[in-house]
Amino acid sequence: xxxxxxxxxxxxxxxxxxxxxxxxxxxxxxxxxxxxxxxxxxxxxxxxxxxxxxxxxxxxxxxxxxxxxxxxxxxxxxxxxxxxxxxxxxxxxxxxxxxxxxxxxxxxxxx
Amino acid sequence: xxxxxxxxxxxxxxxxxxxxxxxxxxxxxxxxxxxxxxxxxxxxxxxxxxxxxxxxxxxxxxxxxxxxxxxxxxxxxxxxxxxxxxxxxxxxxxxxxxxxxxxxxxxxxxxxxxx
Lengths: 111, 115
Hints:
The structure holds two protein chains of two kinds.
Chain A: E1 4-5, E2 10-14, E3 19-25, E4 32-38, E5 45-51, E6 56-59, E7 62-67, E8 72-77, E9 86-95, E10 98-101, E11 105-110
Parallel strand pairs in A: 2-11
Antiparallel strand pairs in A: 1-3, 3-8, 4-5, 4-9, 6-7, 7-8, 9-10, 9-11
Chain B: E1 4-7, E2 10-13, E3 18-25, E4 31-37, E5 44-50, E6 53-57, E7 64-70, E8 73-79, E9 87-94, E10 105-106, E11 110-114
Parallel strand pairs in B: 2-11
Antiparallel strand pairs in B: 1-3, 3-8, 4-5, 4-9, 5-6, 7-8, 9-10, 9-11
């Protein structure tokens, strides 16, 4: 029973275009959502987060949108750069720092 | 020193071996975590320690035994593992597991192969 789902295992986007990574969740008790980025042979690193009281959070080229009624969030990267190529994990938290992760989406930004 | 350091980075062991994974954090955090990442599966939380006390055991088999001697060090002792235990084991830390928003700092992981 996966509570956080990333249904696209991979995504390929051209440099300069927008990358949109999607995430769905089932547990309405989740109140904080995070995106982590992982390069090969490295641990995941925190990218951006959003509280359930907001519907948008922006940090430079990265924006996370939350649609609570649809239990859906998305990460927008614009413009996409080759260095953004990595695996992106969506995570949700309902109890302090106990995170539930999705399976990840591998983003490839092509030249 | 990087924030969270894991050793060894790679480990191959037989099913009858005993080995340990080590994690050390230099961030002054009070909470440490073990996660397991298997192929095509989400990161699975295994154990949480907060101020050296275990606060979460996510139904992990007893062949995995964690140890947290202080807030900076975390071990995962491995004994009579199965081939399906082969995975990437990730250590993470945070300021305090009892509150916060879930921003964890991860190590680079220990890739375990059980033959």
